[in-house]
Each structure stands twice: as structure tokens, then as C-alpha cells.
Design brief:
Layout (H helix, E strand, L loop, with lengths): L1 E9 L3 H10 L5 H9 L2 E9 L2 E8 L5 H10 L1 H11 L2 E2 L11 E2 L7
Antiparallel strand pairs: 1-3, 1-4, 1-5, 2-3
């Protein structure tokens, strides 16, 4: 099983951060279905201050490109992404319009 680690920043506003966390206590079923259908078997999101860290464990059927294409064609996913962008901002160094950025593993024990 492969693992991807990604990062993203939230807008540094305590009220918006609280709203964002509330949305993630009740993620739309269509979003969960989309995640699972793509080959993602486990996903966790952690927060420190306004920085988010996501861990995705994926099976052999997962492809970042296929996931991006499926998301672009899924109206509910697009609605969710538009809603979440109210709370999110790119990390420094991200490409224009890039949200979650894949992190490089630099150490393993």
C-alpha cells in the first residue's frame, strides 16, 4: 500500500477554522463515496494552528491523475471543493490554484 502526505493552509481565522472542522465532522456521503471509489483506503487530516496535514493510504488501483479527472467530472465533489475553498489557502511555494500539495518524505525509521 502506498502513502501520500499532503499539506494545505487554512485562512488564519479561528471562526473559519472552527467551521471547517465542523464540516469535517459530517462530510457529505458523496464525498466519502468518491474518496473510497478512487482507491483511497485510509485518510486522516491533522491540524496545527492553520496548517493541515493529510495522510492518504491507497491501494494499487489509485492514481492521482484518475482521481483528479473523476473529481473534475463529479458535481458534488466540485460543490464540496468550492465550499472548502472558503476556508483554505495555498501553502507558500504552491503553484497558482494548487490546493493540497504533496510532501516529500525525507526520513523513515
Amino acid at each position: 500500500m502506498d502513502r501520500f502526505c499532503l499539506t494545505l493552509d487554512l485562512i488564519n481565522d479561528p471562526a473559519l477554522i472552527a467551521e471547517y472542522e465542523a464540516w469535517h465532522q459530517n462530510v457529505w456521503p458523496e464525498i466519502i463515496e468518491s474518496i473510497c471509489a478512487s482507491g483511497i483506503e485510509n485518510m486522516q487530516i491533522y491540524r496545527f494552528s492553520n496548517r493541515l496535514f493529510m495522510i492518504m493510504e491507497v491501494n494499487e488501483t489509485f492514481s492521482l491523475g484518475k482521481k483528479a479527472n473523476a473529481d473534475a467530472e463529479n458535481e458534488k465533489v466540485q460543490q464540496w471543493e468550492e465550499l472548502m475553498w472558503k476556508y483554505q489557502q495555498s501553502v507558500p511555494g504552491a503553484k497558482p490554484g494548487e490546493k493540497w500539495v504533496i510532501m516529500d518524505k525525507i526520513f523513515e525509521l
